[in-house]
Amino acid sequence: MFRTASARLTASLRPQITVRSYISKQTSHFPHKIPFRFITTTPIRYRPPTTDEASKATGAGQQRKPSFIAILAVASVGLSAYLVLVKSREGQKKAIEQKLESRTKPAFDKDKYTVVFVLGGPGSGKGTQCQNLVRDFGFVHLSAGDLLRAEQRRPGSEFGELINTYIKEGRIVPMEITIALLEKAMREDGGTRFLVDGFPRKMDQAVKFEETVCESKSVLYFECPEEVMLTRLLHRGETSGRVDDNIETIRKRFKTFVESSYPVVQYFEKKGKVKTVLCVDTPEKVYEKVKEIFKEIFKE
Ligand SMILES: Nc1ncnc2c1ncn2[C@@H]1O[C@H](COP(=O)(O)OP(=O)(O)O)[C@@H](O)[C@H]1O
Ligand SMILES: O=c1ccn([C@@H]2O[C@H](COP(=O)(O)OP(=O)(O)O)[C@@H](O)[C@H]2O)c(=O)[nH]1
């Protein structure tokens, strides 16, 4: 990480040094002083050097080797910037942690707010079905992945690089960040019925969210064979522009799902909250089953 930050800094500084020294040489030596190679013993009429000759004489355009001191200076600037970023990121993470720790009850009362967790492997169709539920049941769709990607793109975000790294590696972003984003989105929306899509993906997230934000009413679980999810994700990857819709990251996401996320489904199963839908059929057929389940749970 440090290397990347300092390398980027070096890269961004290097052209400026070259351009600046080129300009200062241009103004101090040319045209008042004629470069040495244009002074000859035979008197000739002065002709201004061509751009090519001038640049050869001044050394502009040539690859300069940065001195050791310059490299050291750039590296230490890079390191300091990186340490400041880490300190402020850690500070912010700690502040969220403390805020959550200090709560004695969830921020949202489960009798006034309805939270349904929508779980399933990557590419099982969670997002697709959530859109149908928003249309027919007046739910607000909160995709944890979308919220993380938005935070990653937000200019000035302390977590942008960290989120990008976790997503690219198919790992689960530290829970404080995701929980804070979900809670903020719930507050800002002002609705009362939420589909929390793709979260919780790990036991610590499940426990912390229910303790501090809101207890879930139900869990919708999309069961899907890996080969089917793989085909869908590779197809989605052709247009999604997502850094994780590629074969290498997809394999890692499957592993993370089996090791960390499936235990969450089992945890809620023991509590009798899970409704499972097999989703190898067409989106329309899958939705028929989902709709029946929602009609049953939310009949009013
Ligand atoms: N039942 C389905 N049959 C075929 N393709 C589907 C089905 N459901 C979703 N898809 C497609 O598969 C891809 C992954 O679906 P998506 O809803 O984004 O999954 P998830 O949110 O679980 O990652 C998308 O390109 C979507 O259009
Ligand atoms: O609570 C979450 C939800 C998502 N992610 C990250 O976001 C990626 C994409 O998740 P999303 O739900 O958008 O897509 P899916 O994997 O379900 O297709 C995951 O692989 C994780 O790296 C995370 O860290 N925590």
UniProtKB/TrEMBL annotation:
It catalyses: UMP + ATP = UDP + ADP. Keywords: ATP-binding, Cytoplasm, Kinase, Membrane, Nucleotide-binding, Nucleus, Pyrimidine biosynthesis, Transferase, Transmembrane, Transmembrane helix. GO terms for biological process: 'de novo' pyrimidine nucleobase biosynthetic process; nucleoside monophosphate metabolic process; pyrimidine nucleotide biosynthetic process. A ribonucleoside 5'-phosphate binds at residues 149, 171-173, 198-201, 205, 242, 253. Coiled coil: none annotated. Its EC number is 2.7.4.14. Residues 235-245 are annotated as: LID. Monomer. This is Uridylate kinase. It comes from Paraglomus brasilianum.
